[in-house]
Amino acid sequence: MLRNAGFLVGAAIVGLVLLVAIVAPWIAPYDPFAIDLNRRLVPPMWMEGGTPANLLGTDQLGRDYLSRLIYGARISMIIGIATVITSGIIGTVIGVLGGFYGGRVDDVVMFLITARLSIPVVLVALAVAGLMGSSFILVILVLGLLLWDRFAVVARSTTMQIRTLDYVSAAWCSGCSQASVLLREVLPNIATHLAVVATLEMALAILLEAALSFLGLGVPAPLPSWGLMIAEAKEYMFFTPWVILVPGVALFVLVLGVNLLGDALRDMLGTDLSR
């Protein structure tokens, strides 16, 4: 790990954002929801007109941008982690059952995977959010219920390879139950593949949440989602470009860090997700 530059950079970025998200109430200089119309669109400290009181300036309502950026990290990490947990459980259960039992069970699993792959994620998420309204919990549920296919494909293919190995046969011969074989022999040996998938899906979930929030169908205002901050700033981008650059760069760096971490894990663990 220490010799892999991608892992070090990715882990540093993700770890820093996660730490900021955890300690956000203690390090944010202001209330991210506090409005001060007398200090609208104050530029960052290094620009002309900026002040140390607002290091990254303020938005169109006078809210401190650094505070909103810090709390936005919490929203992005919660959505990314919660989505991965939800989709990971669904996809892993479906994939392991199909790969372990085969036959008609696998036929049903393949039908479910094919049906899911035929559904455009963004369009379905937009339709659901448009019908049911924007909600923090709804975004997590929609993304979690739509991003399980890669977990299922990887879990199915790796389970099919593992179920014929000697240590699984030895477990059967020793009288272990099906549940014991699945929990003690199969799942621990496909966990590395699923960990790589989890990092990639986390980056995708963060981007999708930002896209939905940008379109006004994701996290509702006034929550400081980075996608929502970009959407609110698009009307001012030509005159005050920092209001769109700050959350845009933050989103780019976080997704880059997660992808670097996932690629490094794939190389170090020797996993091949193309199977």
Structural overview:
This protein is mainly alpha-helical. The protein contains eleven helices and no strands.
Structural class comes to mainly alpha
Shape: elongated
* Terminal residue distance: 25 Å
Number of strands: 0
* Helical content class: 55-70%
Biggest pleated sheet: none
Low-confidence stretches: none
Radius of gyration: 22 Å
Q: In terms of quaternary structure, what is this? A: single chain
The whole-number mean of residue pLDDT values reads: 86
Total number of helices: 11
Detail the topology: elements first, then pairings:
Blueprint: H1 5-22, H2 24-27, H3 65-101, H4 103-117, H5 121-132, H6 136-146, H7 149-162, H8 166-173, H9 178-214, H10 226-233, H11 242-269
Helix pairs in contact: 1-3, 1-11, 3-4, 3-6, 3-7, 3-9, 5-6, 7-9, 8-9, 9-10, 9-11, 10-11
Which descriptors would you attach to this protein?
275 residues, mainly alpha, 11 helices, 70% helix, elongated
Summarize the structure.
With 275 residues, the protein is mainly alpha-helical.
